[in-house]
Hints:
Layout: E1 5-9, H1 17-29, E2 33-38, H2 44-52, H3 58-78, H4 83-105, H5 109-116, H6 118-133, E3 138-140, H7 160-177, E4 179-183, E5 186-188, E6 194-196, H8 202-212, E7 217-222, E8 243-245, H9 246-254, H10 265-271, E9 275-279, E10 287-291, E11 300-315, H11 325-335, E12 340-345, E13 349-355, H12 363-370, E14 374-388, H13 397-403, E15 412-415, E16 421-427, H14 428-442
Parallel strand pairs: 1-2, 1-7, 2-4, 3-4, 7-9, 8-10
Antiparallel strand pairs: 5-6, 9-10, 11-13, 11-14, 12-13, 14-16, 15-16
Helix pairs in contact: 2-3, 2-5, 3-4, 4-5, 4-6, 7-8, 8-10
Amino acid sequence: MSQLTVAKFGGTSVADADAMGRCAAILEQNPSTRLAVLSASSGVTNLLVALASGEHQPDSRASLLQQLTEIQQGILDSLERPEMLTRHIEEILHHIKELSDSAAISPTKALHDEIVAQGELMSTRLFVELLRQRGTQAIWFDVRRVMRTDDRFSRATPDLTALAAAAEEELRPLCDHQLVVTQGFIGAANDGRTTTLGRGGSDFSAALLGEALAAAAVEIWTDVPGIYTTDPRLVSEARAIPEISFSEASEMATFGAKVLHPATLQPAVRRQIPVFVGSSKAPEAGGTWIRNSTPSQPLFRALALRRNQVLLTLTSQSMFQAHGFLAEVFGILAKHKISVDLITTSEISVSLTLDAGAELLTEEVQAELSKHCHLKVEHGLALVALIGNRMSEVNGTGSRVFQALSDVNIRMICYGASPHNLCFLVEEDVAGQVVADLHRELLPA
Ligand code: ASP
Ligand code: MG
């Protein structure tokens, strides 16, 4: 077996025994899928995060643990032979209780990750047993044996070289012979302590494992049948996109489309591994293929919306015909690890947006910036990103877009840096309408 497929199943796809059964059927239909990467069952990670916070009193911890137990018990009860696993799951739940008691005394980042990781450890155990009872042989694999990371708990960065070597040695031989079920989201530092890759990180895990094993494809099974032209909760005419390029999909993930964790495509791009996004509830509905390049390259493909943006405008008269001002400003932002999304400049000012920057933009940062310039901070803005192809090259693109928005106050525009996007900021309360209007004008069915 040389080229295998990696399939990732998200939290809602493994929410209960029925949902897990649908994932099992997907795997059974495609024998070349040799690695299944799972999230924790829906709701579980949130409960574990609350337990790990150390902020809850014993009563409230008991209630969180009870909710956690009910989710696992519901799946166990649907198994034909729950006794195969009952003991094991009970042990994990007991372990979680002990760890959360410790967290209540002294919460640490390492303890947090150890607790939060238990969700994926349980969902994968249950899923392997469910597969076995359907007659599908599968083995459980502890991903921490291969997913080596640094020790930045709750946001760990994978060590790609170590991962590739370990996956080749420990994982590939297993995948050659059978279906392997493993955990998304979690990893281990060099000293063996459990780490996690950040919320929603299972997509990223699947892509990393796909890269390490040079997979033929990575499938992301979730609760929506693919990537949509825009959020269907916002625009009912939104529809699934059959195929999209890596560049376009990366822009979408970065600019707020919730379907994929933004880092997911990096490993796929490095190895040119096609990524499929589909719904485990309706696999027959198809989904979206994300590839290096696609035969269709429409001018307008999709619209993404990211709310809660902070716009920072820095003005300095001394910037006039001077140099070094921007370097100074970005130096300060870099020192405080604040990442900037959009930028526009004029002779004496620069405007930039920060995603969820409110909490990063502390008094201290503002004071430091104020030493060099006048500072204006605006909230309540939303970033609309129009995604497509050759947008900076085709005549009339800007006019088509802005004609559709003739009644809207556009606070800032970024156009031309990438042929794949045109971004602008509008007031939060008109953002939904703006996306609906643009969708109707630019992405008609
Ligand atoms: N279970 C983790 C979370 O809820 C990882 C994931 O679902 O991708 O964030
Ligand atoms: Mg999830």
